[in-house]
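Quality-control log, excerpt.
Job 1 of 2 completed; input and output follow.
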Amino acid sequence: MTPNHTKCSSCGAAIFFAQTFNGRSMPIDEAPVESGNIYLTGDLAHVMKADETPPHGMPLYKSHFATCKHSASHRKAK
């Protein structure tokens, strides 16, 4: 499945949504970055632990919650 590419409704940044292992939809910045902690396999987002190394050659991404200055207004209560 191809991730759903769109724009953040608050800041206008290019993002896409990927599903986490617990079935939740996570907004992710569209452009890969060296400092990212998320890699994708298909449409699943793998959030790496601090001591984890990504698979060789996999682009890394950041959650848009970490980069959007308006992210608090989009978070759902747990």
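Job 2 of 2 completed; input and output follow.
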Amino acid sequence: MTLLHSVCRSKTAVRFLAALLFLAGTAALAQDEPQVAKAEAAAQTWLALADSGDYAQNWDQSSSLFQASISKAMWAGALGNARQPLGKVMSRKVKTAVFKRSLPGAPDGEYVVIQYATQFEHHTATETVTPMLDKDGSWRVSGYFIN
């Protein structure tokens, strides 16, 4: 076997492997799409409560993991302090939504990390909302960050 033949064969093998990996990744993405859609719907409902200033109800609609990490009163105060200077939400668009089975510092499970480009009345920000599939099979928000 010549060196050229070996190189051509290895390139073909690499292309074939890359194609298989792409197809496997595409199949996994397609399988996760319904979960991502459900998580996005839960995030929108949760964000609407935050946008309306109903921070206590916002906490009530959060995941059990979220509720175990912060009290309702502490959450209402923290979210109110963070959101008040920003003003009303003028627009919000999904930048990315990525399905994950593990996240740093969180138990393994099903999560969707959603980043929004959000225009507030007084500031432009990236909001990161992380719904998770909760113990009862419902998607609920387990994390929220504003940058």
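Post-run check on job 2. The radius of gyration is 21 Å.
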